[in-house]
Design a protein that fits this description.
Blueprint lengths: L7 H4 L13 H9 L7 H24 L3 H15 L6 H30 L4 H12 L7 E5 L1 H11 L6 E5 L6 H10 L5 H10 L3 H7 L14 H13 L2 H12 L4 E4 L6 E6 L4 E3 L4 H4 L5 E7 L9 H7 L2 E4 L4 H9 L2 H9 L4 E4 L14 H12 L5 E5 L5 H9 L12 H6 E4 L11 H15 L2
Parallel strand pairs: 1-2, 1-7, 2-3, 7-8, 8-9, 9-10
Antiparallel strand pairs: 4-5, 4-6
Helix pairs in contact: 3-4, 7-9, 7-20, 8-11, 9-10, 11-12, 14-16, 15-17
Length: 452
């Protein structure tokens, strides 16, 4: 079952900054200045009205006061210059008045540009900042939970339709750069946080730097700049919790990014054959022919990051995924206060289904198996399951098949599950990856249904 396309009046003031606007960048910025609620048109209109009133007042003063003789000479000079046989005198006055108004507007624009440059704000990005703070700040409040590239990919789309995104990020990763920093500094895994900060950052330069991975250098090879920055702030401030506000300000985050907990925790899996695996980096190779029955954090009672319960309470939409089921989505739900907040929230709960099964983690799983695993760990059934309906290219599917992955579809699904499914084309061209903007636009449907 597919959702109907969004109507223009449904979208309202939601206007994609980078991908929804077409044409030349200057045209796009001009359209953004005219968006409802941005707080510009009203003052521009007031300036125009006051200018006309001032012009009429000045005319009254000159014509009825001591400058009457000067005004008369001006009119006679203009009359000789324009030649009445070619242009009526009143039309010449209108042209002069229009040119004067345009000159006044131009001077204000140049003054604003100088002020912005003096305060360190690039004039070309000013409209983006104003748009984000005014228009996007009134958009739906969305809480997205997960980790890995799936969550950061979703955030890239959400940042274009709302400034009220709260990302709740799993922190149990123990491999790669994150694992090394976590082990040596006894901190939470920073890798997925770095990806999410970069995805929501309003600073293109900082977003690029956050994801830069060092390919050489003793001690820093394999680390990303973002991971090292978070590790530095954690050391400097005595933990990431104290540095969180600084991080959001430095990176100009459009929304908020929070770790599910500030306490390091390991992921432990119980398998169907009775074995127990510790550390999510071991899941892909150690599960074998068995299935993961249950996962939990060790220690299991880690406290939630303080701002998350309120975000869940105020949320208009809660999104799970996309991402790896047992190592990205479910770990974010294992903090008890988060699970309780989601169960008690009246907001729609949407699960964005993975595109493919995960070799070594969800081999042989159906879509219903994924949903049942979420219900088992969360205690709430998703209200909607968003499923991609487009088919990836054959060469992409063949490449995944060689790794043991297959498309996740509705094969064997019960009618109850099918009633919750919404199918839409959500793929990036020629890839087996969600398109951020198509996915975010599809999710917006669920908040619009609650506010007809």
């Amino acid at each position: 079952m597919s959702d109907p396309p969004l109507r223009r009046d449904q979208i309202g003031t939601v206007f994609p900054v980078e991908n929804g606007a077409t044409g030349h960048p200057k045209t796009r910025r001009a359209r953004m200045w005219m968006q409802p609620g941005i707080g510009v048109k009203r003052w521009l209109m007031l300036f125009v009205v006051c200018t006309f009133i001032g012009a009429v007042g000045f005319l009254h003063f000159t014509w009825t006061g001591p400058l009457h003789f000067t005004a008369t000479k001006w009119i006679l000079w203009v009359n000789r210059f324009l030649r009445p046989e070619f242009m009526p005198l009143y039309l010449g006055g209108m042209i002069i008045m229009t040119l004067s108004l345009l000159g006044a507007l131009w001077s204000i624009a140049m003054l604003s540009r100088s002020v912005l440059r003096g305060t360190g704000t690039a004039p070309n990005t000013a409209v983006d900042v104003i748009y984000a703070r005014h228009t996007l700040s009134r958009a739906p409040r969305v809480v997205a939970l997960g980790g890995g590239t799936g969550l950061s990919n979703l955030l890239k789309g959400l940042r274009e339709i709302t400034g009220n995104t709260t990302a709740v990020v799993a922190i149990s990763d123990d491999g790669g750069s994150s694992g090394r920093l976590r082990e040596s500094l006894d901190m939470i895994a920073p890798g997925d946080l770095t990806d999410c900060y970069a995805a929501l950052s309003d600073s293109p330069v900082m977003a690029r730097l956050m994801l830069h991975r060092f390919t050489r250098g003793d001690g820093i090879k394999g680390h990303t700049f973002g991971n090292l920055m978070l590790a530095t702030l954690s050391e400097e401030e005595g933990g990431l919790g104290e540095a969180m506000q600084d991080i959001h300000e430095v990176l100009r985050i459009r929304g908020h990014v929070y770790p599910a907990t500030l306490h390091p925790a390991s992921l432990v899996a119980q398998l169907s054959d009775g074995r127990v695996i510790r550390g999510e980096s071991q899941f892909a190779t150690a599960v074998g022919e068995a299935r993961i029955e249950q996962v939990q954090l060790d220690p299991p009672d880690v406290p939630v990051m303080g701002a998350i319960p309120r975000a869940l309470e105020e949320a208009e939409l809660i999104v799970l995924g996309p991402g790896s089921l047992y190592t990205s989505i479910i770990p974010a739900l294992l903090v008890q206060e988060i699970a309780v907040g989601i169960r008690n929230s009246p907001a729609p709960l949407v699960y964005v289904a993975s595109l493919m099964t995960e070799p070594g983690e969800t081999d042989g799983h159906t879509l219903e198996d994924h949903v049942n695993a979420i219900v088992r760990h969360l205690g709430r059934t998703p209200d909607h399951i968003l499923v991609n309906s487009a088919t990836p290219p054959k060469d992409v599917l063949d490449r995944y098949a060689q790794q043991g992955a297959r498309l996740l579809d509705l094969s064997g699904a019960t009618q109850e599950l099918r009633d919750r499914v919404r199918s839409l084309p959500l793929l990036q061209p020629n890839q087996a990856r969600h398109d951020p903007h198509a996915l975010a636009q599809a999710l917006l449907n669920y908040t619009l249904r609650r506010h007809p």
